[in-house]
């Protein structure tokens, strides 16, 4: 399937065919687990369908020791609703006597959350989708402050690290959200986004902005896009180019034309 399109296990028509019957002991066992929405309020389970294989693989990569690692079991999307809306939980079951909900810890809020509450990210067009370390609410807070922190880092000369500064100048304008803690870079790519501060000997992380963000929408049973543009960042390529030239002008005044030209 195309990266932005959900797999057939969640096609609206197939949901009807594949859904676990409400009379099935498994459905009743899942109801008895007592699933709650993020606000802690109980959910009435309204639909249980097998979890799409691609989503299971992504969640398993994030929590390799969870019940998802048992290949002999089946993972299910469980949709529940209350006055706050429709929410999805993931459970793993071998039979009605063995039902285990799957949770992932939000690294910002330090709370256990349903896997589908986590924002997914992509570094390249058509690139692999990865699970971020946080939920939408936390990432929204980050998005509001990250552009300011990127500009401050740039104007301070890469936080006083010449190797980082040189790399930031070469990479140019950054408009999309980045954070090596929230959006981890795959290990094989890490060396491309690290430099050594010669003065301290410490490894410094270089921003790697995401290409796109998305989140699973329980109401529509499909992914929906999440804003990746940092608040305050220019919105068009033309505006980004103009902003970059303006920033270079400020950097030339601060560090001298010759030094900035040598980095470019």
Q: Determine the number of helices (DSSP H or I, runs of at least 4 residues).
A: 8
Biggest sheet: strand arrangement = 1-2-3-4
Distance between the first and last residues' Cα: 41 Å
Strand/helix succession: HHEHEEEEEEEHHHEEEEHH
Integer-rounded radius of gyration: 22 Å
Give the proportion of residues in helices. Answer: 25-40%
Give a quick account of the main beta sheet: strands, pairing sense, barrel closure. Answer: 4 strands, antiparallel
Mean pLDDT: 88
Architecture overview:
This protein is an alpha+beta fold and 264 residues long. It contains 8 helices and 12 strands. The strands form 4 sheets. Strands 1-2-3-4 form a 4-stranded antiparallel beta sheet, with helices on one face. It has a 4-stranded antiparallel beta sheet with strand order 8-7-11-12. Strand 5 and strand 6 form a beta hairpin. The N terminus is likely disordered.
Task: Summarize the helices and strands and which ones pair or pack.
Layout (H helix, E strand, L loop, with lengths): L11 H7 L6 H9 L10 E7 L2 H10 L11 E9 L2 E11 L2 E4 L2 E3 L4 E3 L4 E5 L7 E6 H20 L1 H4 L1 H10 L22 E3 L6 E3 L6 E6 L4 E5 L10 H19 L1 H7 L1
Antiparallel strand pairs: 1-2, 2-3, 3-4, 5-6, 7-8, 7-11, 9-10, 11-12
Helix pairs in contact: 7-8
Short description:
By secondary structure, the chain is an alpha+beta fold. It is 33% helix and 25% strand.
């Amino acid at each position: 399937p195309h990266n932005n399109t959900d797999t057939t296990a969640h096609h609206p028509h197939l949901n009807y065919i594949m859904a676990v019957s409400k009379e099935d002991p498994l459905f009743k066992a899942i109801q008895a687990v007592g699933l709650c929405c993020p606000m802690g309020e109980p959910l009435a389970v309204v639909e249980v369908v097998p979890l799409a294989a691609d989503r299971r693989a992504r969640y398993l990569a994030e929590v390799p020791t969870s019940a998802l690692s048992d290949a002999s079991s089946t993972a299910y999307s469980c949709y529940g609703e209350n006055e706050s809306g429709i929410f999805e939980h993931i459970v793993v079951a071998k039979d009605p006597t063995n039902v285990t909900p799957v949770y992932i810890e939000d690294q910002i809020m330090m709370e256990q959350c349903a896997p589908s509450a986590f924002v997914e990210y992509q570094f390249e067009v058509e690139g692999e989708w990865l699970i971020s370390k946080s939920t939408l609410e936390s990432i929204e807070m980050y998005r509001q402050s990250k552009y300011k922190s990127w500009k401050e880092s740039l104007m301070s000369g890469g936080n006083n690290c010449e190797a980082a500064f040189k790399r930031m100048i070469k990479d140019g304008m950054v408009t999309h959200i980045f954070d090596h803690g929230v959006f981890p870079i795959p290990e094989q790519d890490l060396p491309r986004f690290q430099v050594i501060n010669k003065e301290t000997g410490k490894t410094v992380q270089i921003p790697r902005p995401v290409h796109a963000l998305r989140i699973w929408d329980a109401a529509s049973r499909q992914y929906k896009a999440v804003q990746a543009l940092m608040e305050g960042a220019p919105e068009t390529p033309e505006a980004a180019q103009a902003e970059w030239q303006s920033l270079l002008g400020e950097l030339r005044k601060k560090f001298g034309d010759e030094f900035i030209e040598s980095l470019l």
